[in-house]
Prior knowledge:
Elements: H1 3-17, E1 21-25, H2 31-40, E2 44-48, H3 53-59, H4 70-78, E3 82-85, E4 96-99, H5 114-126, E5 132-135, H6 143-154, E6 164-167, E7 186-190, H7 193-204, E8 210-212, H8 216-246, H9 251-258, H10 282-292, H11 298-326, E9 334-338, H12 353-363, E10 367-371, H13 397-402, E11 405-408, H14 417-423, E12 426-429, H15 433-436, E13 444-447
Parallel strand pairs: 1-2, 1-4, 2-3, 4-5, 5-6, 7-8, 9-10, 9-11, 11-12, 12-13
Antiparallel strand pairs: 6-7
Amino acid sequence: MEASSQWAETLAERIAARSATVGVIGLGYVGLPLAACAARAGFYVIGFDIDPSKPDALNAGRSYVEAVPSSELAELVAAGSFRATSDMGRLADCDVVVLCVPTPLTATRDPDLSYVVATTETVAREGRRGQLVVLESTTYPGTSDEVMRPILEARGLLVGTDTFLAYSPEREDPGNARHRTNSIPKIVAGEEPVAGRLAEAFYRAFVETVVPVSSMRTAEAVKLTENIFRAVNIALANELKTVFDAMGIDVWEVIDAAATKPFGYMPFYPGPGLGGHCIPIDPFYLTWKAREYGHATRFVELAGEVNVAMPGYVIARLELALDETHRRSLGASTILLVGLAYKKNVPDVRESPSLTLFERLVARGAEVAYHDPHVPAVPPTRKHGTLAGRTSVPLTAEAVAAADAVLIATDHDACDWALVAENARLVVDTRNVLRRRGLTARGRLVLA
């Protein structure tokens, strides 16, 4: 029997028996829930992260990801099912290695695969023959076979012979209690059939539905298609908002009425811009790759332009409302920004339009404070470093009444929206949260 067949057979047996050791590299919003799911299914899981503070916290049973409660994590640690480390040398102990690392954009909106490259090099250096290596990070079609495969093979790990390479895009939705890691259908594909079957068997151990596709490029394209679909439709809702506002038509009422149609329509809602680790970034991965084939993704790029322009539109609406309501300029006003996270009920500020709003308002001379029950302090970010360290103020009647305007950027359930409606002199609401909750603003309400 060939060595590759022996390794595949051994690995398949270990996966089936739950005796395989699973390594998860990157213990963030994607990696930690995946690690917890695999550990609950009976695998021994080693979590890897280059930030030493994360393994220290996790091994003490303290979770920083809401999808994995500390109580649940502590049970897995106590049971010996999960252990976190910064020691990449322990990759040699793993049978399955899953990469859950960031794939951001460069300053020129080109794919930044530095994390994927560096992590694959580490796996090639510290790993061993007979491993299944799976990338979960969102990326352009061709990354797994054009970028990862050559790195592995340069170290003598021939894909399909010495190691098995697969791709399975993450589909996490932070803050969504209904759809969890184990209940979200999992797309899987291997570089060759054996890798595909191993990846499928691995994920079937803890995910309810696994959907195999024909190639890793197809799987990579699936993830981009999902996120581009959302980005384009949100851009449409945002553009309709600006047009309908000019016509004196309530876009929220239009969308809610249109959503009563039981076929041919799916509601998407406008907002102050796009945020998160996927929607604002992933479409540009396809745009970049399409140029290699001589194609322009005009539709996708236009959607990106519309969404990127939304913070400017919100500030223009705020500026006009301040002048009409208080006869005050933006630069002479005090603004209470409610919501810093990119979406409701999560502490995630990655690519959040709230940070853009915050920074632009400060640059215009406004006095700005923010409240966010999930973000007690602004973390360091690459784009908005000047805001790092600012802290959330309590949402009190006094703070709301003292502001010239309350700008609602994120509609967290934990915020006291009745207090805002009762005490604000001017509310600029980008999420329609007050009316959705049936609240009547005592002061002026402007939708933006």
